[in-house]
Amino acid sequence: MATVQVACSPLGGPPREPPREPPREQGAGFRRLSARLRALRPDDSSASRTEIHLLLDQLISENYSAGGGVAPEDVSTLLIQACRLVPLNQNHLVSKVSQLTHHLLNTLQVIVDERNLDFLLAYTISAIQQCSSWTHVKILQALAALVYGNGSRCQKYLPDLLGQSGLLMKLSGVAQSDPEVRRAAVHCMANLCLSVPGQPYLEEPYQNICFQAFLTILQSPKSPEMDDITFCMLLQNALKGIQSLLNGGKMKLAQTEELGALLAVLKKSMFHGLPGINIEMPTVLYPTPLPQYDGRPPVKLQLPESSASRPTMNRKKKSKTKPKKIQQEEEEEEEGSSGEREAAPVTGLGRANVHEGNTRPPSSGVQSSRLDGGGAAGKDGVSSPFSSSSWKRISSSESDYSDAEGGMQSKMRSYQAKVRQGALACFLSTIKSIEKKVLYGYWAAFVSDTPELGSPQSVSLVTLTLKDPSPKTRACALQALSAILEGSKQFLSVAEDTSDHRRAFTPFSVMIASSIRELHRCLLLALVAESSSQTLTQIIKCLANLVSNSPYNRLKLSLLTKVWNQIKPYVRHKDVNVRVSSLTLLGAIVSTHAPLPEVQLLLQQPCSSGLSNSDSATPHLSPPDWWKKAPSGPFLEEASVSSPPGSSEPCWLIRLCISTVVLPKEDSCSGSDAGCAAGSTYMPSPMRLEALQVLAHLAKGYFSVAQGYLMELGEVICKCMGEADPSIQLHGAKLLEELGTGLIQQYKPDSTLAPEQRVPVTMVVLFWTMMLSGPLPRALQNAEHPTLQASACDALSSILPEAFSSLRSDWQILCITVLLGLNDSKNRLVKAAAARALGVYVLFPCLRQDVIFVADTANAILMSLQDKSLNVRAKAAWSLGNLTDTLIVNMETPDPSFQEEFSGLLLLKMLRSAIEASKDKDKVKSNAVRALGNLLHFLQPSHIEKPQFAEIIEESIQALIATVLIEAAMKVRWNACYAMGNVFKNPALPLGTAPWTSQAYNALTSVVTSCKNFKVRIRSATALSIPGKREHYGSVDQYAQIWNALVTALQKSEDTTDFLEFKYCASLRTQICQALVHLLSLASASDLPCIKETLELNGDMIRSYFLQFLKSGAEGDDAGAPHSPQERDQMVRTALEHISTVQALAGDTAKRAIVAFLDNILTVYLASSGS
């Protein structure tokens, strides 16, 4: 064959290569040389030393590669033999053995086992102690390689290395004259701090020693004898050491001075060598939002802030996936560390994906037109004079650099960039290791609230984002800023910017608002100036974090408009990650504090707004079937007749998302479209998922905009749920749930929406018919994907009750049958979702009077209430509460047939299950007591008369009493008080005569006087005012105890240490006053002396609160209190009339005193109201 190929070679073709020698077996040279070295015996002769020299030279010069056929144990054996052959008085040989140790361990990625480590460490430490100082750098390099990944095995040598007079402490100290030795010693310390999963970490005393040593190095200025590159490498090692301590050692920075000192050096290091900026920092940063640098020299700015320009780079470098350690070694070679192994890789900063070399030319068109003074984005351009294209490819050898100033400058700038990146990575670890409330004390040090005015305070993380020439450093700064912003909603919520503040001082709220504004301004500047796709992605993600946490309802308008207009072009960016993050940002805009009027206006903008015709963000499409090639189908045709009135302009964002989800991609997947499956005709999966999430956010926050696309979105959902990808199906189901919830909200009784603005029920019926005749039933029965099943259950539970009743009976039966079936699922996620959905359906007006459905649902829920999963039991308890609500609603209807037909045995089962559930966790307990109260309210005289009910009723009430008094979650106690009030509403129960009466009242009076939570107090006062007859309150003593407890509660209605409870004070007083007036309206002659005694002691206090009760309504969730003045007035008059008609006992003056008291109150009230 070969001959034929040669004969057919075209004339004039490329010259043929000569035959190559067969490749040598991997590791053969190492094994040959190793065998020769192992054959030698210790000999102090000149010939022996010469041979050892030659063998070591050959071993060092051998070409090795990781995994190159050399076993780790062979490396350890060779190194031990070399150490045995070389006495410590032979400096040159010791230096070569150290070089070989470093070279082999570093190149072959070997971590020495514990057995051999002891010998090698002892030899190396002794070599440092005994050999000449010129050998120390090589020996320390060997030591660094030995301790890498072996920190936990070096415990017995730590006193020699890190003790008070330890070798590394002396060699890394400021007094060390040789800068290379100092740097190598710090390198060893950093490697000792490296954590290994599953291995014990450095003991705390040694952690503190290392931390202080690293901190001192970072705080110390460069010594005169140290060159700039060595200084950079020294700082890098110190930063990586601190990062290892924070990440692996979980070191806690509890002391303010300690944390402040670290943050000060990190901020200084973040700007190390940054062209145009030189800042001086205090030794310690203190947690305060106020300026703290008064009197310090101003920052030296050499570049105008408005230009946002940086040195540019034009070489892209692709990274290949490598093992962590190999990748780390290559990164260190780039840092020019002479092939040394560094302490730890900088994790989490996406190094492999950041292109360190895109040019940054002026932009044109829409991107540059919106920001004054911004830089620009683009693809083509001329490199600047400070081109950093050579920064990344730095060889570990000095000889690889020309002596020209440009080459040295590039090398220098590269090392300085590595310091900044290390500082930012260390800062990120610091952010993750301290509490947010501590971090935000330093907000002003890292997030500026004003444009740069020449003070160090204004030099912040966004300065790096705008000015740093390295895309990787910019990405690191953005990631740190994102970490600060993440979870900052509560901190930023104090911002206030809606009015002009003209005061002698700047309020904290205004300062935070100014910070938010400045962050928006700078990130938008960075957005239009950035050309590196990976850094661009980080900018957009950072913007999304900012948008998600900013309180736009308290800020001036236009911030979101600027972000919205700037991000539009990026949804068509060539890089899929940029497109995905752009959709994430748009999702953040439509989900933050929704609905916002500003966003509502943005959603109503024309499709072309903010986009050039040549680069439109979405195709020009014509409704209603613009995204489908096939005709729209019967649903859209029928729906178009009854569509609700809406804007004539289609919503740009909805159309973009729909086209992203359903339209085929415009061209083949580019290399960056990682989410695009081979052979896929659609956009990359991450884009489609993000677009579906944006649609879900829109449906949740801006349903009035989404409702005009209801049927089109329905077909999108059907398309998604019909696909093979479970994640696309899942997001489709989530969108369906949000749309269903939006429709339900429109039809709620408290909805302020005009009827003509709602989606017509006929269209909702069409929508759900489309869903049920589509892939939704298949998703519900797809046992292979339980998460999808659960999500489909949630979606099915969001059907509008009015629409459900209008569905065909077969669709109704399908829904009910599927949910009852899924309640038996072995998957707990599915079972919980089905139990919850049944709890929704049992409230539907068309189903709640169906005795068979309610009974079937009750049995299904009771079964789920026995499940081992807490989540299933919690959902089942919630559904049981809903089911018992349905029993109460049915009881209040004129038709008694439901009560008569409902099984008494099933009621017993429900009571028993609810009693057991009331002893469960709080999540279950809160709804179990709600169910108990409803069930005891529902019981008919025919049930109560039966002997089997007597015991269960007693147990149920005891369970409620115990829950009222228990120190549980306040929601549980509130529900228990509410349930007790429901029990009191059942006239068939022997309230007042049963033994449990006094226990129930004692529990409620205890709560009303002493519970810390005022909402629980309000609910207990409401329960005490429910019994409608005097005999229900029991004996005179029982009545007196209730009356006195309510008076005491009125006195203590402002006694609280929790500021949040103060807003419920007025509601509590109103409810207590209502309960006291109710008791007065039922009082008997025997009760009057007790009432009179109380009025004599606390009459003034009661009078003032009664007058407040008459003058003002409830403020808060006091739904049980009468709100109109006429009702309150009538209550007091009724009480007065009742007391007036009571036949007082002979010689008793209480009646006259009480009548006079009430009369006086009414007189004062009428006089004050002018009637």
From TrEMBL:
Could you tell me which InterPro entries the record lists for this protein?
ARM-like (IPR011989), ARM-type_fold (IPR016024), DUF4042 (IPR025283), HEAT6 (IPR052107)
Annotated signal peptide: none
Q: Which residues form the DUF4042 domain?
A: 418-599
Locate the compositionally biased regions of type Low complexity: 383-399
Biased composition range(s): Polar residues: 360-370
Region annotation (Disordered) ranges: 1-31, 295-406
- Give residue spans, biased composition: Basic residues: 313-325
Q: What Pfam family is a match for this entry?
A: DUF4042
Q: What is this protein called?
A: HEAT repeat-containing protein 6
What organism, scientifically named, is this protein from?
Pipistrellus nathusii
